[in-house]
Amino acid sequence: MSEKKRMLIVTAVLISLFVLGAFIVPNKLNWLNLIVILICYPASFYMMKHRVNKISTMFDLADQLGISTSELSRVTGIGTIDLDCARPVTVNSYVPPMKQVEKGLDYLYDKVAKTEISVEK
């Protein structure tokens, strides 16, 4: 299923739930909670998935280039223990700040440009 089709289905389901919620949940506080849950939960899941993908890319590039955790720590400003905690990249693992991860990715992409390794951004 394509991404556009999936987003269209999710949007249709959310709109249907909003309309049904207006009739089923008469209390305005419960209605507000329903809106917050239905909007924030998928958005936070998407953002976390995006962050995990970026961190995974950073570790993959560092492994390909043979860059140690201490050098990656020096470049990004993330502590070595924090990088070790983020190393098994899953949704439940530690997620460093994105500004520092972006700094590390920029450094690694510059290193890739200077070497012969081909990597997709």
The gist of it:
The protein is built from five helices and no strands.
Q: Which structural category fits the helices and strands?
A: mainly alpha
How many helix segments? 5
Unreliable stretches (pLDDT < 50, length at least 5) are none
- Tally of distinct domains: 1
Termini separation:
23 Å
Quote the average pLDDT. Answer: 82
Classify the beta-strand content into a percent band. Answer: under 5%
Radius of gyration: 20 Å
Element order, helices and strands? HHHHH
Q: Helicity range of the residues?
A: over 70%
Q: Which overall shape is indicated by the principal axes computed on the Cα atoms?
A: elongated
Described by strand count, sense and barrel closure, the largest sheet is: none
* Record field, number of beta strands: 0
Describe the structure.
The chain crosses the membrane at residues 7-25, 31-48. Keywords: Membrane, Transmembrane, Transmembrane helix. With 121 residues, the chain is an all-alpha fold. The protein has one domain (3-114). Helices cover 76% and strands 0% of the residues. The chain contains five helices and no strands. α1 packs antiparallel against α2 and α2 runs parallel beside α5 (98-114). It starts with a helix and ends in a 7-residue tail after the last helix.
